[in-house]
From TrEMBL, chains A, B, C, D, E, F:
This is Germin-like protein. It comes from Panicum miliaceum (Proso millet). InterPro entries: Cupin_1, Germin, RmlC-like_jellyroll, RmlC_Cupin_sf. The keyword Secreted applies. It is found in: Secreted, Extracellular space, Apoplast. Oxalate binds at residues 77, 82. PANTHER family: GERMIN-LIKE PROTEIN SUBFAMILY 3 MEMBER 3. Residues 29-175 form the Cupin type-1 domain. SUPFAM superfamilies: RmlC-like cupins. Belongs to the germin family. The keyword Metal-binding applies. Mn(2+) binds at residues 75, 77, 82, 123.
Amino acid sequence: MHVCVAAVRVNGVPCKDPATVTPDDFFFAGVDRPGSAASRRYGFTALPVQIPGPNTLGASHTRVDVAPGAVFPPHYHPRASETAVVLDGAVYFGFVTSYPDNRVYAKVFRKGDVFAVPQGLVHFLYNNGTEPAALYATLSSQNPGLVILADALFGAGFPDDLLAKTFLTDLDTAHKIGAKFRS
Amino acid sequence: MHVCVAAVRVNGVPCKDPATVTPDDFFFAGVDRPGSAASRRYGFTALPVQIPGPNTLGASHTRVDVAPGAVFPPHYHPRASETAVVLDGAVYFGFVTSYPDNRVYAKVFRKGDVFAVPQGLVHFLYNNGTEPAALYATLSSQNPGLVILADALFGAGFPDDLLAKTFLTDLDTAHKIGAKFRS
Amino acid sequence: MHVCVAAVRVNGVPCKDPATVTPDDFFFAGVDRPGSAASRRYGFTALPVQIPGPNTLGASHTRVDVAPGAVFPPHYHPRASETAVVLDGAVYFGFVTSYPDNRVYAKVFRKGDVFAVPQGLVHFLYNNGTEPAALYATLSSQNPGLVILADALFGAGFPDDLLAKTFLTDLDTAHKIGAKFRS
Amino acid sequence: MHVCVAAVRVNGVPCKDPATVTPDDFFFAGVDRPGSAASRRYGFTALPVQIPGPNTLGASHTRVDVAPGAVFPPHYHPRASETAVVLDGAVYFGFVTSYPDNRVYAKVFRKGDVFAVPQGLVHFLYNNGTEPAALYATLSSQNPGLVILADALFGAGFPDDLLAKTFLTDLDTAHKIGAKFRS
Amino acid sequence: MHVCVAAVRVNGVPCKDPATVTPDDFFFAGVDRPGSAASRRYGFTALPVQIPGPNTLGASHTRVDVAPGAVFPPHYHPRASETAVVLDGAVYFGFVTSYPDNRVYAKVFRKGDVFAVPQGLVHFLYNNGTEPAALYATLSSQNPGLVILADALFGAGFPDDLLAKTFLTDLDTAHKIGAKFRS
Amino acid sequence: MHVCVAAVRVNGVPCKDPATVTPDDFFFAGVDRPGSAASRRYGFTALPVQIPGPNTLGASHTRVDVAPGAVFPPHYHPRASETAVVLDGAVYFGFVTSYPDNRVYAKVFRKGDVFAVPQGLVHFLYNNGTEPAALYATLSSQNPGLVILADALFGAGFPDDLLAKTFLTDLDTAHKIGAKFRS
């Protein structure tokens, strides 16, 4: 069979011997329940679908749960476009177009709704309702990457004067925001 | 915005004027319910997700419902790999590797299970249980194509002697099977 | 030289040391005669052109011979389009478009004729004349794959009830056809 | 000649008649001087190289000037990797790896130094010296896109509560920073 | 059918209405005989296979005939690798690796032999025997391009001093060779 | 970080352990001065930018210096298009379109001018002035390849009769030119 079944989930690893491939190499269970590892800062939970078989198939999938009041803050995927279907609940979703427009496309999505995000654009989820929301997201790469904007800006150790200039603010404000990301 | 929002759903059409793009161009509703157009022959229902925005994003999505006793018979997509998550019920799913192995990978999938099919390989769904089954399928192309094997073999008007030789059978058997596909 | 000359014919293997590359790594002989390994079931012979050098060049070639009365039954290549030129004799060739059209494009091809098959579509060769036919086929991938429809349906061990539903026929007919593929 | 010379600079437009193509279609002048349109907010100047000929060649180029004290604030290109050579002066440059590492790679670059940024990663320029700095940047796409993080976050009209949650801060701080971007 | 059948042979033209597509759109006749338009300078004949259907299939084909004593002089294809099978006769074929090796891989090829040329490398055909030779060549692009080195050097109007420096020779020799290409 | 930092500069090698990656893996110094290894035959100097980090980023860069009276003789890159900016001095640059046009696009380029060359087309640099010229060239591949036409024709050991036929000249002239390339 002309399929590379990886022994580990990173793309590019040596393939499993085809003689030892089983149906389970193309299978993953548990997307009907939230994942267990919630973001400490933001309260969302991401459960990645890990199937050894599709390592070279050019797609990956994640179940995302967002509790009431929680956000999956503005982020993007450097190497993938995304679509997602709402499995349960409702969530305020939006994405922002690139420079110089910075135009936001946003609305509340409910169970059975599907939305799409072009490759590399900033998008967010905000559960501003009272019920838990669950989504099933598809990314057009097996190695899409994730950049959370606030983490990249305040969690990487940028000098305060660069941050102040970036946000058109003073050194003190920049430093105070950064403190939350250093703790 | 660097996204081609098509006015019609065929890939390659002229793009919508960016100034007239709205959130709804990236949105589709109704995946929480089965589609309405069931296959007359096989009893499955396919509801394609039609979003104008992701016309160039390299993916497409379909909700598939399979009633008890119904099949989505052996088929393949010439231009896409596939993954699918079971939304409700259970279904016997499998795919077949290529020549000369013709090895089948199959098992029953239940709610929350995900499976993957490499590009162009034959696969099927069979609801051999008693509850309706629903799936959400993702294809790695906005124009994946679909070939149903039995339709291609018996619905295209092949001469009976070619079909008899193909199935290692007699002209009469080939002709009788074909009759069902011509009516 | 920026060419990966593989030691074995599978794509992706470690490359031969460029210092040991010779003209023979880019050469194959014998396409002027039929191959020796005829299909037991169908009577066609396929002689693959095996050149170590073009392992990464994105094409592969095969000489195909079809004896009078023999077929290369309906099949497709999951990862390649195909063109072929008739070297000798004549052959009835056709391909079928995808769902929902299932339209067949077919005619008799003679020496010096060339035909083309889009990627992943079902096609066949049938020598319904009295002279041997020979073709030289080009596939747009070094790893095109091959799926013979009848083998995938009856040679993979599908349950009889799935096959009966697939062909709109009874269990007995499905079982009888399958017996030929199990022997 | 098999080159699409576009009449306008957007990729995908109808090509110029090859008979009317001239050397100037493959030529651009002025990269030896800064561009004239400085960013009002940040003080950097970008001069895009606009050559009609290479519309389909998969690369684009920009001269960037950063005055002492000015920044090209954290940004990324959704569809391109980047390399740049320093033509004059010195500049503090860095990029940040993706989640969950958020590791920064940064140092001062001087005349004749070249740096590279993987596709889609956040990077910045900060002239923390006393001389003007000039760079010549190459992007691996003719349509790379640009997202400036602060603009996407504060210039798109996100609700203040989303911004407060994103930056782990209070509504008032979020609102005050946003005010600068709304004026 | 998801195939673009072009009305003219240039890639990118508007597609034919699928309803008017016929088997002949995927068919070409005459490869069993030499083409009629021999090169005035070199004596080879090239007969391109022109099939409207495979306009987007990523391959093209040409029958090449080389009379005894004639050459298809050193040339390359900017956008394709090549393989070719000898249909009749014998021909001395070779290709040259790139800088700095400039290593030649060459030998005499006879009926039924196949050779391969990596993308963009210089290659030639020389019939140094007494029988006409015929080949069937496959290029891995529908728009491979052709550059004949001597034509590019002497047929484009380069100044004589550039040519003299290029060939490490004197102005007079450069001018004399060029005269043959200007007549 | 999802970047392959190669230990050696050839594409495809095993990646460096991400934990040992440093800013210097994305950095190269010295483009403000000419390289040291001038071509013995032609007098140009090429200084390749060697950055381990961008091994998989799809681009490469070279500083090229051409002394007064020197040439970078007609050559092409089999796997890349090129753009270049003039850093200092002036140079006569041109490229030639493919068969059958062989049309030359050429003019003198000065400091701050940028030119573009479509993939695989023949181009040259000729410093016919009195000042040294320096350029910074960008190629759209990390493995673009280089073929110098005169070297490929006269440095690979082609038989004299093939060369004579190629240049429409006599054996003696072909042999004499070749002698310069064999010494």
